[in-house]
Amino acid sequence: MPTPISYDRAVLARLVRRQHGLATHAQLRALGVSQGAIWNRARENGPWQRVLPRVYLLHSGAPDTVQRLLAAVLYAAGQRAAAAPLSGRSALLTGRAALHMAPGSTTRHEAARLAPVEVLIPDGRRVVDAGYVRVIRTRRWPTRHLLVDSMPITGAARAAADTAARWTGRPNALRAILTTTVQRDFCTAGDLVDELSAAGLDRVPTVALAAEELTSGVTSWAMGHARKVIAASPLPPPLWHPDLYTPTGHFIASPDAYWPRAGVALVITSPTHPPTRHQRLTPHAIHVLTTTPTTLRHTPTALITSLTEALKNGHRSAPPRGIRVETE
């Protein structure tokens, strides 16, 4: 015989609205929902469904991206946080899921496919991995966090560092994640480098290279790869991402690389970074070469050949006069 339902439906409705249709076992019990009612409604083909241990979605149908991630935080918060599991004091979404959910992100839909989803908890708490959730314990609890769709998440710098700490994929893919985090203005290069250092990750070769690129102004995979290609070539080292000014102090542009003695600049273009810098540089007698991420990836020798010829021609003639160069 079905268990009678005696809890306040209005109070429960307000809770699930705040939590996108989710509730923990502890929250349901605190509202007066009996154990029998929970079991009955979460049975197979029942109106509720168990998403993770002691976390329920109070309607049928597959959870969406926000519900899936929010359920992970609710699970990791544990039963002692029943009154405020989403306060950010007991659990925070981190790692790649937090980066996808960062304010301004256009890749939120990609978080739906992530497994595992990483959630940060304070060191010493007894919560284990479950389902698609990976629990990460830390003694360095973030002093600040963000709230996105009622979900507490770490800042982008911490999320990227937590991603790097457990990365098992290709090194270049990790470098792309770290540099993209800065390129998309989720955080500053300085904040990310500081976070990587605080986690002791600056001793990991791949992370150390990415940190060096970030502090040198390299904020995209293409710039990082261009630096690697040029460093491995016989070309003299350029200035990376300098600011160029006219003799009267007017800003011209910031090419991705610049050889001042030859007056040669390299500009990396893409659909999201059109070659407007080319148009600002050429009127000042600067020889501009453009390349694309595709060229860098597949035919880097063609770029080196073009740069070699341009530098030879530039050294034969006088470099542009009066161009003032500033670097960080």
Structural account:
The protein has helices at residues 9-18, 25-30, 35-41, 65-77, 95-100, 156-165, 171-183, 189-198, 205-215, 221-231, 276-281, 293-298, 300-316; strands at 22-24, 49-52, 55-57, 92-93, 117-122, 133-138, 146-148, 151-153, 239-240, 243-245, 251-253, 257-259, 264-268, 287-291, 324-326. It has a domain at 239-326. The protein is elongated and about 90 Å long. With 328 residues, the chain is of the alpha+beta class. Helix 6 packs antiparallel against helix 7 (171-183) and helix 8 (189-198) runs antiparallel to helix 9. A hairpin with a 2-residue loop joins strand 2 and strand 3. 37% of the residues are buried. A 4-stranded mixed β-sheet has the order 9-12-13-14. A 3-stranded antiparallel β-sheet has the order 1-3-2. The chain has a 3-stranded mixed β-sheet with strand order 4-5-6. The protein is built from 13 helices and 15 strands. The model has no long low-confidence stretch (mean pLDDT 88).
Overview in brief:
This protein has 328 residues and is of the alpha+beta class. 38% of the residues lie in helices and 16% in strands. Strand 12 and strand 13 form a beta hairpin.
What distinguishing features does this structure have?
about 325 residues; alpha+beta; 4-stranded mixed β-sheet; 15 strands
Chart the SSEs and their pairings.
Blueprint: H1 9-18, E1 22-24, H2 25-30, H3 35-41, E2 49-52, E3 55-57, H4 65-77, E4 92-93, H5 95-100, E5 117-122, E6 133-138, E7 146-148, E8 151-153, H6 156-165, H7 171-183, H8 189-198, H9 205-215, H10 221-231, E9 239-240, E10 243-245, E11 251-253, E12 257-259, E13 264-268, H11 276-281, E14 287-291, H12 293-298, H13 300-316, E15 324-326
Parallel strand pairs: 5-6, 13-14
Antiparallel strand pairs: 1-3, 2-3, 4-5, 7-8, 9-12, 10-11, 10-15, 12-13
Helix pairs in contact: 6-7, 6-8, 7-9, 8-9
